[in-house]
Amino acid sequence: MPGRLLRGLWQRWGRYKYRFVPWIALNLSHNPRTLRYVPEESKDKVISDEDVLGTLLKVFQALFLNDFNKQSEILTMLPESVKSKYQDLLAVEHQGVKLLENRHQEQSTFKPEEILYKTLGFSVAQATSSLISAGKGVFVTKGLVPKGAVVSMYPGTVYQKYEPIFFQSIGNPFIFRCLDGVLIDGNDKGISKVVYRSCNGRDRLGPLKMSDSTWLTSEIHNPLAVGQYVNNCSNDRAANVCYQEFDVPAVFPIELKQYLPNIAYSYDKQSPLRCVVLVALRDISQGEELFSNYYTIVS
């Protein structure tokens, strides 16, 4: 019995250590490829914020149009200029469809991963990691990810460095620390899941959702929201993606916020919502697993 218990604990540790920050820190000298050096915080950008925003808007807009027949409540709250924009885009996308309200009868919707492929030329998904005992990982399931592309997002509740996260952090391998101390809890189970759902319900404005909670389920609406399962690189597996912080601008379309997989722990209109995206460091082919470096050293 003690032997089985120890083996179980060892297997659990084998999966946990790939995201356990103290373990990574203690093994830096043995694993130099997990480090990424940047001269200063402001230069920790592989691509520009404008490029990140452009990609997110492109994907989210495609998801919105794909679900257009389910957006009627939201559309009633939008200005006429915004509604006509989407109707024009939809008309261009499906020129043969004259009656937009009957679109669901004439044009079937696609799965989110299919929309991602049609929009960016690749799709990603969770699967068993190629690392022994690492649990889940994220793979390119279709297409080619070009260098510099936003390949996924790190979902979760966003905590400022002065906000309480002790109980959520116990045994939690999914807490990401930003350069300025902001934390993102990407755990989709336990108290972390309860906290995210609570904040998601708090910020909702009638039919308008300020964030996406489907990454907590098996039916993910935003196919990019799998970044919390990207494993750390090793000496044998070089990093092919890296993390990049992104603050959602005030001009972000309110109707597309339903696809943002992050939400602030405390409601604060003054601070922009922090998101973290993963950017490809090289071309990544179909079937490859994503590996990132968790540590950034500011010199």
From TrEMBL:
Start and end residues of each SET domain: 122-295
Gene3D superfamilies to which the protein is assigned, alphabetical: SET domain (2.170.270.10)
Matching InterPro entries: SET_dom (IPR001214), SET_dom_sf (IPR046341), SETD9 (IPR040415)
Ranges in a coiled coil: none
Region forming the signal peptide: none
Name of the protein: SET domain containing 9
Domain of life assignment: Eukaryota
Taxonomic source organism: Rhinopithecus roxellana
